[in-house]
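Deviation from plan, reported transparently: 3-methyl-2-oxobutanoic acid complex.
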Amino acid sequence: MTTRDFLVWKAAGRKIVVVTAYDALFGRLVDEAGVDCVLVGDSVNQVLAGEPSTLSATLEQMIYHARSVRRGVRRALLVVDLPFLSYQVSREEALRNAGRVLKETGAEAVKLEGGAAMAETVRAMVEIGIPVMGHIGLTPQSVHALGGYRVQGRDEATAERLQRDAAALAEAGAFSIVLELVPAALAASLTSRVGAATIGIGAGAGCDGQVLVLPDLLGLNDAFSPKFLKRYASLAGEVRRAVGQYADEVRAGSYPDPDHSF
Ligand code: KIV
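Because the crystal trials were delayed, the predicted structure below was used instead.
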């Protein structure tokens, strides 16, 4: 899968399947399941590290996880989130950090948050050969400025701003744009107007593809239940059941039995 395929598939109306992964084991499993793109999201900072937001994620942390995922992913396109403050301070710093991600992880593209304000940074990255996935709508790195994790683009002014943001990113050369928590009709309209492939999360079925956070999709994170989330498994209960049974058997002295001993 290449960044070019995103555009070819958009033109052909073929949906693009994206999922997050944070380690080699799940990278291999989702690649074997046939997803088209694996995102090493800075959501790792909340989902695995237990932090309250993505804001404290570091570049070193993202590189560490992306290197791990790379060892598992063979076929899907590998995209890595640039963490907060690794690309906003200056263009030079943004290029160096994005370049480090590609050099040190073997990923094929980076993702960054922000619309028109980031367009020149996106252009500069694309010009030196770094493919960029944009991210607009609810941008978690701006959660405090946005006043919480809320649907974006419900009123005319913010809907128009999102149209401008998507157009600016596509014009700057982003091959794809994540639309997070955007009303379905607006996301469908953005999708039909921009050249970049749109990937929705909480943005309805009219996007060119969809992304979900893997532990959410698998039902591992059962404390998190936003409206858009569909769980395709209930692994949290299964983990508790399996580990509970193991604990019971160890305490009862029934594990290991002769079949599991040398
Ligand atoms: O960090 C992440 O996992 C993301 C997806 C939710 C798009 O940005």
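The two ends are 46 Å apart (CA to CA). We consider this an acceptable substitute for the interim report.
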